[in-house]
Design brief:
With 505 residues, this protein is an alpha/beta fold. Helix content is 39%, strand content 15%.
Length: 505
């Protein structure tokens, strides 16, 4: 289980560790860790490898200088673009610069033209680390863009330059302007892993993340309030099926939605609930219900107005619309004693209805909310861009305000508990960026709740299994382009069964 730490927490750990170590020890260890990863990516004939090292003005540049010295001594042809600090540098950085100058590495005054025109084997990004507070602009932005245009591995030290380590947003991105950040193929992150490497723009810019704790004593690490999602967080809830069981043993799910012209959304959610293990599944329509689902006749189609909301776990919102009748259905669902998953139009109705939000906060039964960024923005009264600028904070705020587990969907889905702890999901890919995949996720959440999973573990497992199903489809060559939401359902069934087989009690 990988803990994630904020920049402030990393700074505190770093400061405490420095008190126990000789001056410059952490920078030297970081340089060695960066060099080790670079060496793993270089060819066996290392003397022919052309490595470009970008050493910025701060301590991240010091890490890069240490890396460059190691690579030079290892036999690579190392070119350093060095950007000295404007003020007085830290003594450890001065020592790193001296070691780099004493190594076989050479220093060059490069331009974006010479960078783009050279045949580099690998680039090491040590321009800016976790301390960057301003957007990268001017000549430095042009340098980053030139590096991003290269077709070779790019190893970022600690964090890709320009990426916010806490949020995963590109520093400088806003509604009016866009920032730049290095698109690394690999990131060697120091001391501990960071949330921003795994959500928002993080996964596109960090590439493969390798954590080096720099041999810091474990007692200096506080308890983490954020983690990467992992089977170990929820596997204890998996159960193998007993022979002596029946459909009532595995719970009932009622999907409430399906206004006129939007019947597909609840059908997708209901099919997922059935195929992921719920014993009975009802599709309850705000509009006129179909007689049955021809592709999945096991589903029981009902009128939402006539269904007893206390008789099943509820998945409310897929295709429900925003009519007065839909608002009444949501109010009835919130008034029930049933566990609930709220998605799509249920969230939009919550955003528009103060009384509905009050009802939600007063519920005692388990509740999971699954907003995408725009739905989260409506609930918080801010813009979607503001949500994306700090996804962990947005998810935490929603969980606290609405007294529910919140699944903020997107690249690096953030799952937030009512106590402020968060988990960032590690599975999934762009195959999920298509209509209907959110309905599939809500149905899966409801199915796990119906099978007796606690609220928190149900959310973690559903998000992980949903992403894993997409990953399997891509591995098998079915995506990511053109995968439809319904294709996820059989892949989810396989993933659920494997989870039960390997981890179930």
């Amino acid at each position: 289980m990988t803990p994630l730490y904020t920049v402030a927490e990393i700074r505190a750990i770093e400061h405490a560790a420095a008190q126990r170590l000789p001056e410059g020890a952490l920078m030297q260890r970081a340089g060695q860790a960066g060099a080790n990863e670079a060496l793993d990516l270089l060819p066996f004939t290392i003397n022919k490898a052309r490595v470009l090292v970008l050493a910025g003005p701060g301590n991240n540049g010091g890490d890069a200088l240490e890396t460059a010295a190691h690579l030079g001594h290892a036999g690579a042809q190392v070119t350093i673009l060095h950007f000295p600090p404007a003020g007085t540098p830290a003594q450890e950085r001065v020592a790193a610069l001296q070691r780099a100058r004493s190594s076989p590495a050479r220093f060059a005054d490069g331009t974006t033209t010479t960078i783009a025109g050279a045949d580099w084997t690998l680039v090491v990004d040590g321009l800016f680390g976790i301390g960057l507070a301003r957007p990268i602009t001017g000549d430095m932005a042009a340098l980053v863009e030139a590096v991003n245009g290269l077709r070779c591995p790019i190893v970022a030290l600690d964090v890709p330059s320009g990426l916010d380590a806490d949020t995963g947003a590109i520093i400088g991105d806003s509604g009016a302007a866009s920032g730049v950040a290095v698109r690394a193929t690999h990131t060697v992150t120091f001391i501990a892993d960071k949330p921003g490497l795994h959500t928002a723009d993080g996964r596109d810019h960090a590439g493969i993340v390798i954590v080096s704790n720099l041999d810091i004593d474990r007692d200096l690490f506080p308890a983490a309030r954020a983690r990467l999602n992992d089977v170990a967080l929820f596997a204890h809830c998996a159960r193998r099926r007993r022979h002596s069981s029946h459909k009532g043993s595995h719970g009932s799910v009622a999907v409430v939605g399906g206004a006129r012209g939007m019947a597909g959304a609840p059908i997708l959610a209901a099919r997922t609930a059935l195929n992921s293990g719920a014993g009975r599944v009802y599709a309850c329509f705000v509009g006129d219900p179909p007689a049955f689902d021809a592709a999945q006749p096991e589903l029981m189609c009902r009128s939402a107005q006539e269904y007893d909301f206390n008789s099943a776990v509820l998945v409310v919102g897929p295709g429900m619309g925003a009519s007065a009748a839909s608002a009444e259905m949501l109010a009835s669902a919130l008034h029930s004693q049933s566990a609930a998953v709220l998605d799509a139009d249920a969230l939009n109705l919550l955003a528009a209805g103060e009384n509905l939000r009050m009802q939600l906060t007063q519920r005692q039964a388990p509740c999971i909310l699954t907003p995408h960024p725009l739905e989260a923005a409506r609930l918080l009264g801010i813009s979607a861009a503001q949500v994306q600028a700090d996804r962990p904070a947005a998810a935490r705020a929603l969980a606290l305000q609405l007294a529910a587990t919140v699944v903020l969907k997107g690249s690096g889905t953030v799952i937030a508990a009512r106590d402020g702890n968060i988990v960032i999901n590690s599975t999934g890919n762009p195959a999920l960026a298509t209509a209907g995949t959110g309905d599939v996720l809500s149905g899966l959440c409801g199915s796990l709740l119906a099978q007796g999973w606690p609220e928190w573990e149900a959310a973690l497992a559903a998000v992980w299994l949903h992403g894993m199903a997409a990953d399997v489809l891509v591995t098998e060559g079915a995506g990511p382009i053109g995968v439809s939401a319904s294709e996820l359902i059989p892949a989810i069934r396989t993933a659920v069964n494997r989870l039960a087989m390997h981890h179930g009690s």
